[in-house]
């Protein structure tokens, strides 16, 4: 299964995380990709919370099917799309 991977380690440091997330969601919708893997990393958990807040925005939430938190890796989220 094809997926889009967004590693936010570098994005967070240069302040472009929201643009990276928007681009990944848009790309998934445009290409019919069913899975976006977001890697906020483990750290303090603040970046992961920020990502979840972004994904909960109404205009973003209506574009995907569900969010899955990786049970084996706290620092990874999966966003599933249903096309």
The major sheet is characterized as: 4 strands, mixed
Distance between the termini: 14 Å
Strand portion = 15-25%
What's the level 1 CATH class?
A: Alpha Beta
**Order of strands across the widest beta sheet?**
1-2-4-3
Stretches where pLDDT falls below 50 for ≥5 residues? Answer: none
The string of secondary-structure elements, in order, is EHHEHHEE
- For the residues shown, what is the average pLDDT? 89
Query: Number of DSSP helices?
Result: 4
Topology, number of strands:
4
CATH topology: Ribosomal Protein S8, Chain: A, domain 1
3D shape: globular
What value does the Rg take, in angstroms? Answer: 12 Å
CATH architecture heading = 2-Layer Sandwich
Class based on secondary structure composition and strand pairing: alpha+beta
- The residue fraction in helices comes out at 40-55%
- Give the number of domains: 1
